[in-house]
Amino acid sequence: MVETNTLKKLKEELKSYEDMVPVNNMGKWSRSVAIKSYKEKIENLETLIGFAGQFYSGSDMKEKEIFVEGCVEAVRVMGSLEQNEETEDLDIKTNETGDPDFMYNWIRNKSGK
């Protein structure tokens, strides 16, 4: 399997949290949450890398690594774009109403209060 720079960084971060010695219960909790989060991210990234690697038809490992890295980056950018689109949609709704309390009312309505 190709190991991208992002995957290497995630594995280093995971290792640092695994090596960390918590001082109190809050430290134990935050350490366990971080470890779980990093393991999930690593698993998802490894799945994505394996999936992207299937589409590379060449035999040069360096080119395959570049191809896979590009695919991973493309997925990351698409995720960012989707998040920005949701934010822009919300901004448009706010501007269309002209109501300065729009967000407050929207949040209140969403929470059922």
How is the secondary structure organized here?
Layout: H1 5-19, H2 25-53, H3 61-97, H4 102-111
Helix pairs in contact: 1-2, 2-3
Descriptive labels:
single chain; 113 residues; mainly alpha; 4 helices
How does this model look, in words?
With 113 residues, this protein is mainly α. The protein has one domain. Helices cover 81% and strands 0% of the residues. It has 4 helices and no strands. It has helices spanning 5-19, 25-53, 61-97, 102-111. Helix 2 (25-53) crosses helix 3 (61-97). The relative contact order is 0.10.
Number of strands: 0
Could you spell the SSE succession in H and E letters?
HHHH
| Overall SS class | mainly alpha
Overall mean pLDDT: 77
Beta content: under 5%
> What is the multimeric organization of the chains shown?
single chain
Specify the overall morphology: flat
End-to-end separation in angstroms reads: 51 Å
- Bin the helical content: over 70%
When the domains are counted, the total is 1
Count of helices?
4
Largest sheet: none
**Unreliable parts:** none
Radius of gyration: 21 Å
